[in-house]
Write the structure tokens for this entry.
Amino acid sequence: MSRAFTNEDAAGEALPEHRYPLPARDDPAWPLAAARALLAGANVGDSSGAEEATGLVFGAPELVPAVRLILADARSAADDRLEQLAERFLRRAGVETGQVP
């Protein structure tokens, strides 16, 4: 095969489950870890990789409680970027973010 048809940059790229390590799905920590993975993926422009690793889309309603916790932490830590991403996630899930604690 000609080298023109190979993608050498992707050859060493980690699979989504390695870029976004998650506990077992039945682990009580999974929703928070999945929410963090989706927000981290969005932060680096890899939403599709994070979605593939978690099996959920950005804005998945089942992660709203976890994202609300992350948003509260981001606000108390004055982490503007994480706050912005969490608010965007909640809006996509259909949650009004103005009064989210």
